[in-house]
Amino acid sequence: MAAVSQSFKTELLGAIPSLRAFAVSLTQNADKADDLVQETLVKAWDKHESFQPGTNLKAWLFTILRNEFYSQMRKRGREVQDSDGIMTARLAVHPAQHGQLDLKDFRGALEQLPEDQREAIILIGASGFSYEEAAEICGCAVGTIKSRVSRARARLQDILKISGEDEYGPDAISAQVTGSNAA
Amino acid sequence: MKEMSKNSTTGAAGGRRNGSGNPLGPNSEIARKLKQYYDELVSDEVPDRFAQLLSQLEEAEPAEKKD
């Protein structure tokens, strides 16, 4: 068994901020997120030989982290997710005006998304992965990622009362945003 | 509505972008907030425990290589 190379270690260290951000996005809890990152690093270390140099280490690590998250969630019977109500209650939704959406409101809205939608929109819209990479990380089809992102976006718009479909310009996905105008 | 001259297509992440930039729409409020939310998390200071963990893992490794 080959030793872990110094460069692998350096890259692991470098990936930690991204891993933590993704972990918080998934768990919505800073402590659980750091535990998850720790597990991920240990796993990555143990199976470093299965990483193919030259491929995307960050994507590889995100895959490990995500798998770890879902397996923990299964073990705990899904209580990982926010004990519902608390976050939702804290979220005072008031109509957002363009450019004035509060980050706290946004965070609250993000918490209300199902995990699969939240992770999809984070991977695509924030972590900088391509649809193909995100699909690989989540072990699903590219089309599935696209539709999750689309639903996540529609849901966020709905929760945050953003009505500006026109903001998105001519892309196919935005056409799916149905005009919901809940009070 | 003119967006600020802030363009986030050059994200820190290594993923390759398709020509349209941010898939959520470069000018969208949600895309911007999502970036802001995430960037804040990424820039959070990393606790020492992680560097310590990697050092421990390194020390635990057998020094000599065999195959």
TrEMBL record, chain A:
Gene3D superfamilies: 1.10.1740.10, Winged helix-like DNA-binding domain superfamily/Winged helix DNA-binding domain
Positions of the RNA polymerase sigma-70 region domain: 17-78
Keywords from the UniProt entry: DNA-binding, Sigma factor, Transcription, Transcription regulation
An example Gene Ontology biological process: DNA-templated transcription initiation
InterPro entries: RNA_pol_sigma-70-like (IPR039425), RNA_pol_sigma-70_dom (IPR014284), RNA_pol_sigma70_ECF_CS (IPR000838), RNA_pol_sigma70_r2 (IPR007627), RNA_pol_sigma70_r4_t2 (IPR013249), RNA_pol_sigma_r2 (IPR013325), RNA_pol_sigma_r3/r4-like (IPR013324), WH-like_DNA-bd_sf (IPR036388)
Chain ranges of the RNA polymerase sigma factor 70 region 4 type domain: 106-156
GO molecular function (one): sigma factor activity
Family, similarity comment: Belongs to the sigma-70 factor family. ECF subfamily.
Protein's recorded name: RNA polymerase sigma factor
Phylogenetic lineage: Bacteria, Pseudomonadati, Pseudomonadota, Alphaproteobacteria, Hyphomicrobiales
